[in-house]
């Protein structure tokens, strides 16, 4: 079974409004409040594909209770670790031309809460694959993610990482099954700006050199992605445009869709990439996850080809 870890979850407030004007109050036209966090998004998307998972994370206060309740209302299993404070609220504003995001730091993490999570990993049933996504809370131990991977590997579990910090490069030596950086994160972590296929090949090779087994590299609004297993490289690109409503959740759902097709059939890369890009595009047209109503249609309009190696 898949387990997901969201160490720093959030309630996402997504607002549509008129053009923002400094020092003026602007009335919104719509506002939504959704439970969020990258690992939670993966669990929610897996559920939409009929795949069960267990959502792990740290939760605090009334916002934490809201997230846990909504997670279970969606039919997802959840094993929360309760901490002091208030789980953060993140704000996203779309004025019809630009999208703005204000991300808060989250409730501080205690050593006791970290140990409780390790204990859960040590005793979790059917822990086949742990997906670790997103940021870590304030005051987390420097080796928190290292220990998470160690406890998962001790159970024989695969580990998938979707992290934006430089910590990803350090954790690569522990040989995660898969990482899913976007092109901005790849530049920050490995120092390669990706404008061409050759740039992507170099960046992917660097990830494998430090220990990563497989890489799913997404290109954001470019509507494309690369996948490398260390031997072959695939490039996928959607052949249609979308109207962006919110990029929140899109990358996480892309990862979930890819895993549903690829995890149990590692040769099924082409179909996995098509489903992944189609899902990401459909979610980007929605507030939150949306209903995945165009995924099948969009999958047929995505081109996948193999690239020659460097």
Please outline what is shown here.
This protein is α/β, with parallel strands linked by helices and 310 residues long. Helix content is 35%, strand content 26%. The chain has 10 helices and 14 strands.
Structure description:
- By secondary structure, this protein is α/β, with parallel strands linked by helices.
- Helix content is 35%, strand content 26%.
- It has ten helices and 14 strands.
- It has helices at 38-48, 61-73, 111-123, 144-154, 167-171, 183-190, 197-209, 250-262, 269-284, 295-299, and strands at residues 2-6, 10-17, 28-36, 53-59, 77-82, 88-94, 99-102, 129-133, 158-162, 178-179, 214-218, 224-228, 233-238, 302-307.
- The strands form two sheets. A ten-stranded mixed sheet has the order 5-4-1-8-9-10-11-12-13-14, with helices on both faces. A four-stranded mixed sheet has the order 3-2-6-7.
- Strand 12 (224-228) and strand 13 (233-238) form a beta hairpin.
- Helix 1 (38-48) crosses helix 8, helix 3 (111-123) runs parallel beside helix 4 (144-154) and helix 8 packs antiparallel against helix 9 (269-284).
- It is globular and about 50 Å long.
- The chain starts with a strand and ends with a strand.
- 45% of the residues are buried.
């Amino acid at each position: 079974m898949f387990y997901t870890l969201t160490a720093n979850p959030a309630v996402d407030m997504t607002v549509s409004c008129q053009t923002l004007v400094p020092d003026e109050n602007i009335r919104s036209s719509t506002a939504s409040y959704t439970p969020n966090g990258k690992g939670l998004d993966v669990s929610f998307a897996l559920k939409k594909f009929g795949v069960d998972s267990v959502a792990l994370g740290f939760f605090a206060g009334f916002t934490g209770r809201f997230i846990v309740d909504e997670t279970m209302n969606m039919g997802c299993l959840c094993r929360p670790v309760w901490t002091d404070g208030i789980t953060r609220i993140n704000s996203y504003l779309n004025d019809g031309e630009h999208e703005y995001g204000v991300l808060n730091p989250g409730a501080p993490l205690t050593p006791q809460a970290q140990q409780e999570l390790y204990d859960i990993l040590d005793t979790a049933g059917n822990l086949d694959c742990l997906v670790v996504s997103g940021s870590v809370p304030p005051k987390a131990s420097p080796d928190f993610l290292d220990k998470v991977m160690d406890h998962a590997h001790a159970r024989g579990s695969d580990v998938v990482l979707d992290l934006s910090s430089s910590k990803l490069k350090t954790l690569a030596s522990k040989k995660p099954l898969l990482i899913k950086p976007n092109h901005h994160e790849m530049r920050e972590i490995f120092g390669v700006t990706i404008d061409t296929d050759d740039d992507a090949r170099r960046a992917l090779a660097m990830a494998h050199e430090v220990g990563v087994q497989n890489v799913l590299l997404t290109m954001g609004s470019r509507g494309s992605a690369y996948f490398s297993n260390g031997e072959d490289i695939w490039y996928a690109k959607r052949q249609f445009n979308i109207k962006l409503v919110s990029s929140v959740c899109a990358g996480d759902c892309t990862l979930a869709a890819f895993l549903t097709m690829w995890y149990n059939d590692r040769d099924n890369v082409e179909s996995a990439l098509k489903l992944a890009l189609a899902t990401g595009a459909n979610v980007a047209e929605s507030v939150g996850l949306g209903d995945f109503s165009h995924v099948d249609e969009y999958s047929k309009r995505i081109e996948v080809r193999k690239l020659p190696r460097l």
